[in-house]
Amino acid sequence: MASITRSPARTVPAFTLFHPRNPRRVSRRFLGIPSAFLLDDYLPRYQLLTSVESSKKRSLAYAHLRECNLCPRKCGINRYETTGMCLIGAKTAKVNVIAPHRGEEPCIQGHHGSGSVFFSGCNLRCVFCQNHVGFILFHFSIICLTLFIQDIAHQRNGFDLTPQELAEWYIKLQQIGRVHNINLVTPEHVVPQVALSILDARDMGLRIPIIYNTSSFDSKDSLQLLDGLVDIYLPDFKVWKSSTSKRLLKAEDYTVTAMESITEMHRQVGDLSFTSDGIAKKGVLLRHLVMPGKEDEGMEIMRWLGENVSKDLYVHIMEQYHPDAHVGKKRRVARRVRFVDASGDESLQEEVRYAEINRAIRDEELSSVKEAAVKAGLWRFCEPHEGQFHL
Ligand code: SF4
To answer: Does 107 belong to an annotated binding site?
Structure first.
């Protein structure tokens, strides 16, 4: 049975193109959704698994937990007895927030929000982590589970939930929150628990797409376990140079791993496709956060994506970088260093950590990455601040 059906192109709201000579200027074209990206209907991939395939996935999930090499850290430990670099064991996943979320791309959040599950812990150690401080609200209701301000990425803060309890939350998000999808945020280190939770939720009546929202520091094994369970991959491609990933992500092999992971994700689900209401149902939505002084790396990433993944890849070039986590914090033993501001005035200031990325990005840095994307042949871009669906 096919999971998707396609129909001829039809008239829908505009999609967005960056102007080739001025990427901040947006060209609007009122075209139909190309039939290759339009779905009449959609049945999530996990609904298509046979009972034999589901049982195999369950066995594989347990096996991975007994000797965990599920991410490129390759700790090789039994997570029923100890924890590896991600700090998370086997029986539960640690969760910081579960809630309908309206901070995602329009085609993901739709009208009712994306049913987001923010996992605690992470297998990267980004010094600029944009999730370093969690959420300001404390809230516990029938469809929200939220902790007070916490570092959700680098510490073991959060609620311990079994796969079955996670599945019950997915059902609440679907039935009461009426969300468009289940959005698993930073789940690389809890893929077995996530796989089991999706299978449990399927048996409980889940029928909305699953999003795997990842840093792309995934292993082939974990992506194989997810094949057939995930509908939309939402990978970041953060930096290009291994010297940068070593310094800023604490993972020298990040770029090679991200290239392999994104290629495999695209092999599984293809380019992003929508139903006629403008909601994404299947495919890859790639994010790149432009970093201060790293626009050359963003440009390389765009070139690689256009040449090696797909020119029809749906790309969100993000501009919301802000210094966070360890960036801009005082050193324990601080020296005073010469500082030149934008107007050329010099002063002596106390040295801070990761000073090279301790600022917002500049317009020209953003423009360079967008121009490189257009030059690479990419054309499907997300412009969320325009406040409507982009196809
Ligand atoms: S998922 Fe955690 S325990 Fe497993 S290899 Fe990665 S860091 Fe180590």
So the answer is: no
CATH classification at residue 167: 3.20.20.70
Q: Residue 126 annotated as binding? A: yes
Residue with CA closest to ligand 1 atom 4? 68
Task: Tell me, yes or no, whether 84 lies in a domain.
Answer: yes
Q: Confirm or reject: Cβ of 193 under 6 Å from ligand 1.
A: no
Find out whether 86 is annotated in a ligand binding site: no
Q: Can you say whether residue 257 is alpha, beta or left, with left for phi > 0 and alpha for psi between -120 and 50 degrees? A: alpha
* Residue 242 φ/ψ, nearest 5 degrees: -70, -25
Report residue 45 as tokens: 């991939």
> Among all chains, which residue has been given the structure tokens 């406040």?
387
The CA R_g of the chain, rounded to the nearest whole Å, is 21
Asked if 203 and 168 touch (Cβ cutoff 8 Å), the reply is: no
Alpha helices of 96-154 — where are they, by DSSP H? 106-109
47 contacts 174 by C-beta, under 8 angstroms = no
- Is the pLDDT score of 208 beyond 80? yes
Is residue 339 in a domain? no
CB distance 225 to 193 below 8 Å = no
Task: State how far the Cα of 193 lies from the Cα of 376, in Å rounded to an integer.
Answer: 38
Looking at per-residue pLDDT, the higher value among 298 and 111 belongs to: 298
User: For strand 159-161 and strand 93-101, is the pairing parallel, antiparallel, or unpaired?
Assistant: antiparallel
Residue 337 β-bridge partners? 349
**φ, ψ at 313 (rounded to 5°):** -60, 135
Determine which of 9-13, 15-19, 95-99 has the lowest per-residue pLDDT on average: 9-13
In a domain, 263, yes or no: yes
> Nearest-5° angle of CA 76, CA 250, CA 63?
20
pLDDT at residue 226, rounded to an integer: 98
Total number of domains in the chain:
1
Q: What is the pTM of this model?
A: 0.85
